[in-house]
Specification:
- It contains ten helices and no strands.
- By secondary structure, it is mostly helical.
- The radius of gyration is 18 Å and the shape is globular.
- The termini are far apart.
- The mean pLDDT is 92.
Length: 201
């Protein structure tokens, strides 16, 4: 089956709905006082999971497109990638505003004191760079350097599940599952990753 421009358009509409609904659901939970016993931590965790799941979908697009022979499916990757940034931004904004109450001095202390926050901050910086350079005009301007820059998504795919794993205090089954999934997706790209690492030396 070949995806026409119309198919791609409606697929993007569906993806927008799929990624916006969880955010709207979170708003509804908060407004109705159903965000758990600790709403602040619930919001931080919820938005973090949104970023992690969006990242997982982003990395799944390429192998699915290759397996199903649907090259046009790759046109949705930028859209999903921007939702990774959106949820990651909500995640860190919730942490800074609701948990730390904009105490910037405390933020730097937390980053240094808690390794999982440092790892998460590094992942967020990379995701921000990828989002900022995602427009087609910037892509054309960067040329071959654009692909090399956006291959840093592989680093995010390592840092994000590690951040999740280190951030939990007791339940490790769920983060362990995510770590396995991301490792498998990266293993599937081992040739591309090896080539990228050789070029960046």
């Amino acid at each position: 089956m070949r995806l026409s421009p119309r198919h791609v358009f409606w697929l993007k509409v569906i993806l927008h709905i799929v990624f916006l609904l969880p955010a709207l659901y979170l708003i509804a939970l908060v407004m109705t006082d159903n965000a758990g016993g600790d709403p602040v931590q619930y919001i931080i965790h919820y938005t973090g999971m949104g970023a992690l799941n969006s990242l997982l979908v982003t990395l799944l697009i390429s192998p699915i497109a290759k397996w199903a022979k649907l090259a046009a499916l790759m046109q949705t990757r930028r859209l999903v990638g921007l939702y990774v940034f959106a949820y990651a931004l909500l995640h860190i904004a919730a942490f800074i505003s609701l948990d730390l109450l904009f105490a910037w001095g405390l933020l730097f202390e937390e980053v240094i004191k808690r390794p999982y926050i440092l790892v998460g901050a590094a992942a967020f910086i990379i995701v921000t760079l990828l989002a900022v350079t995602s427009p087609h005009g910037i892509k054309r301007g960067l040329g071959k350097r654009w692909q090399s820059l956006h291959n840093w998504i592989y680093v995010v795919a390592l840092l994000a599940p590690i951040h999740f794993y280190w951030s939990v205090k007791s339940e490790i089954i769920e983060p362990s599952i995510y770590m396995v999934l991301f490792v498998l997706l990266l293993y599937n790209r081992k040739a591309a990753i090896k080539k990228w690492l050789l070029l960046t030396r």
